[in-house]
Specification:
MetI-like fold, mainly alpha, about 280 residues, globular
């Protein structure tokens, strides 16, 4: 409780208080109470809504894709075959690597026009496609960020699903086989129900991590091109630390926290109701 109070509750309460002031990071002027002015200005800011849309789009794509791919990988590596631990390690390696290092590596792979990815595209297409400016094309920048994020993070969810799969009693599968259930029927009627609690954990944590998207964008695109990859967390960072508007950034932070809490609560409620049914 002391740790939660110090690192979660107290900072959020401070953000709520500062959101009603004109607090700046560095300013000779005294702090004044300005009411709802920061929130009014925030909701009228086009850049805020662009950042919100980009963040929501990222989460809407990454959460189902990453969770589904993690479940598929977990099923593949949940087998008693020789060398399976090697594959588990290979899939988990990107999670261990710091995101900044991952982004630097991918930056050189995606260089325009001489990067390795463009060279591979030209070879596969026999010179008919490419080169593509993966990080500076508004149509490609966000999909590129999404693919990098899934590649780096899917191993974490895979391990969670693997633990969930190993917690399902083998007797249930044996009974299903005796009853003549196909592998697909076993997946639907044994695996999926047995992973309901795991689904709740994976979906909620993946959603929170998706909404916190910052490092990939800051390292690879700095929110560009033309705001196509700017996210809510980076919007808060720029407002608070580059433009020094702490009160305004606090208002955006409050909206961000409430939005994440609302979405996570809805996910948990829907999945819990499904389990009860």
């Amino acid at each position: 409780m002391l740790l939660l109070l110090t690192f979660l509750i107290a900072p959020f309460v401070m953000a709520v208080i500062l959101s009603f002031t004109n607090q700046r990071l560095i300013s000779p002027l005294p702090t004044r109470f300005i009411g709802m002015r920061n929130y009014i200005r925030l909701f009228g800011d086009r850049d805020f809504w662009i950042a919100m849309r980009n963040t929501a789009t990222f989460a809407a794509v990454v959460v189902p894709l990453q969770s589904g791919l993690a479940l598929l990988l977990a099923i593949l590596v949940n087998r008693r075959i020789r060398g399976i631990n090697l594959f588990r390690g290979i899939y988990f390696v990107p999670v261990v690597i710091t995101m900044v290092v991952v982004c630097v590596i991918w930056y050189f792979l995606l260089l325009y026009p001489q990067g390795l990815v463009n060279a591979l595209v030209r070879v596969v297409s026999m010179g008919r496609l490419g080169p593509y400016d993966w990080l500076r094309d508004p149509r490609l920048a966000m999909p590129t960020i999404i693919l990098i994020s899934i590649w780096q993070g899917v191993g974490f969810q895979m391990v969670i699903y693997l633990a969930g799969l190993q917690g399902i009693p083998r007797e249930l599968y044996e009974a299903a086989v005796i009853d003549g259930a196909s592998p697909w029927q076993q997946f639907l009627h044994v695996t999926m129900p047995g992973l309901r609690n795991t689904h709740i954990f994976v979906l909620v944590t993946t959603t929170i991590l998706a909404f916190k998207l910052f490092t990939q964008v800051e390292v690879l695109t700095q929110g560009g091109p033309l705001g196509a990859t700017n996210t809510l967390v980076r919007y808060i960072f720029v407002s608070g630390y580059k433009e020094l508007k702490v009160g305004y950034a606090s208002a955006a932070s409050v909206i961000f926290v409430l939005a994440v809490l609302l979405i996570a609560s809805i996910q948990r409620k829907l999945l819990t109701e499904e389990r009860e049914i």
